[in-house]
Amino acid sequence: MTGRRPESTTEDDVPIEGSIRAGDRTVTYLEVGDHAGPLVLHNHGGPSSRLEVELFDAAATANGLRVVCADRPGIGRSNPHPDRTFQDWAADLQLLADSLGAERFAVTGWSEGGPWALAAAAYLDPARLVHVSCVGGASYGTFGANWAQKFQSSADALGGRLALHFHPGFTLMYEVLGMSIKHFDDAYSKAIVKSVCDADREVLADDDVMTTFLEASRECFRQGADGLVVDATLLYEAWPFDVANIDRPVHFWQGSADTLVPSAINEAVAAATPGAVWHPVLDGGHFIAVSHANDVFAQAAKDLAA
Predict the structure, then answer these.
(1) CB-CB contact of 46 with 220 (8 Å)
(2) Is the pTM for the entire model greater than 0.90?
(3) CA–CA separation, 16 vs 10, rounded Å?
């Protein structure tokens, strides 16, 4: 395992970037919060990357947590793993916890990171994984391939059809998205602001939040679009695990006004998950992961302390 501070400093609460080996692959992560605190492994959304975790630095520090976010394979600085599965990533998360010296740990996931948190709940030992949170999770393959398309925006529904039936088109869609974020980030940010609810616009009006969001999105395409294509394809395909078998507590956080992952999707997933604990946020949007980060991480801290 290697680790370094991104900037030269002696302060204890600055982000630390590091990496571990998973077989012949490198998995790169960023760590924020209290570096001596209990471990939370956060799963970033898409398009996003390990840099997303900087949005949660204040909440992590306030709750005394060490929050680590790893780039999934082919994203950011993590090596590709094109044949990976949900179970493979759950194993990577456990290996990361082992490498960081954590016997007990929590897992969170936002947006396209939500399903990877649910996979951890499905595959990892609850004696070690003591908290799971899925925040506005993009649970598009829970009950079969692209089952959620009737609730999605036209763009996301099209993405699902391309992922399942015309993969070259799906790849091209993400390549164009990557070019937009890299070279026309002002237009991209305006498109995001236009597509979300009022509560999300208030969150994104914070320049620091928007800057970090854009940096995390841009970093997703450091190696091109292939990593995100693999990632998103797995979300749209029928999942290999059944949430009906998850009877350990899983916290679902959902904004009622979320336009990117409508509430109906996760209401159905939570209803089918025996261990679900539902946390609705009235009039909240997709960015409740930021606006309600303290609530999410306070729950994680409580479970880690139990």
Answers:
(1) yes
(2) yes
(3) 12
Encoding tokens for residue 16?
């630390």
Coil, helix or strand for 70?
strand
pLDDT at 12: 62
Q: Which long-range contacts (CB under 8 A, 24 or more apart) does 146-155 make?
A: 146/236, 148/265, 151/262, 151/264, 151/265, 152/262, 152/265, 153/195, 153/259, 153/260
Which domains, ranges and CATH numbers included, belong to the chain?
A: 2-305 (3.40.50.1820)
Beta strands in the chain (DSSP E): 2-4, 16-22, 25-33, 39-43, 66-70, 105-110, 129-135, 250-255, 276-281
The whole-number pLDDT of residue 14 equals: 84
Q: What is the DSSP track for 213-276?
A: HHHHHHHHTTT-SHHHHHHHHHHHSPPSS-GGG--S-EEEEEETT-SSS-HHHHHHHHHH-TTE
Q: How far apart are the first and last CA of the chain?
A: 29
